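# nightly structure sweep
# worker-07 picked up a monomer target from the shared queue
# config: single-sequence mode, recycle default, output format = structure tokens
# input follows
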Amino acid sequence: MELPSRIGPYRVVARLGHGGMAEVFKALALGASGFEKVVAIKVLREEHRGDAELERMLIDEARLGAKLAHRNLLQVHDLGVDEGVYYVRMDYVNGADLDALRRRALPSAPLALAIAEEIALALGYVHSLTDDDGRPLGLVHRDVSPSNVLVSRDGEVKLADFGIAKATRLASNTQAAIRRGKYAYMSPEQIAGAPLSSRSDQFGFGVMLHELLLGERPFDGASPLETMDRIREAAPPDLGALDADLAAIVSTCLARDPDERFETAEALQRALGAARRLRDAAGSGDLGRWVRAHVDGPSVPRARTATLPITDEA
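# output follows
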């Protein structure tokens, strides 16, 4: 596939990844006196350009991203149009997504908890976001999964991809959201097409934490349909290999009834912090060294080593 030379004012350097709907490029923002800044540019795939519904989704994602400002969220900086093609400019993260990294090597428990606590901080911010009048938006990410967590070579952790995030007080197409989400990380209520609260994100978080600590997802079946059936049932997984405090965190996140999960992402973050204090210290420096040790390994796809992952598959 031919690489475009420019998108809007940005000089394209490389294609970073693509999914069913969009693709992401590494690009340079150029300025006076030799100024250069590396950025990430997201556009719809060529076959989808001109699709009004997908364009609306990309615009909505950019508008929502512009409202989010937190150190653990991928920042959106601009929405533009170049010859009728919409594009979104975002942070470039020099590292890899968590899915690519965990395929290369699982983190130690202290590193897994460090990553998890940063994601919980991001979710706490997202869930408490309000509109301009101070009314809670009730925002739900709907796709908390390893491919949407970016970890940099400096040990930064950022939650990405708000393409299917919805404010619960706004109208939404739940079935479309299910089709665009990653089924292995969906909550039982999301698969059922039921209304979602912020606690739905905890379920995907719990699946991801289980995967980081034990190397496998708790509800995987032989097919997508079997996996979704197992998630609907959400039978308590075997957590005997985990320490009691970690098993309690994972099992609470994976409760079938949302009311039995943590009351808030802040409560989840506090539980993770308490678990971290009982173990060896692991900070951003340790996390950065882990990323640098594995990001260029042969098992990490090159298209997924730098910025926003946009695959639609589990």
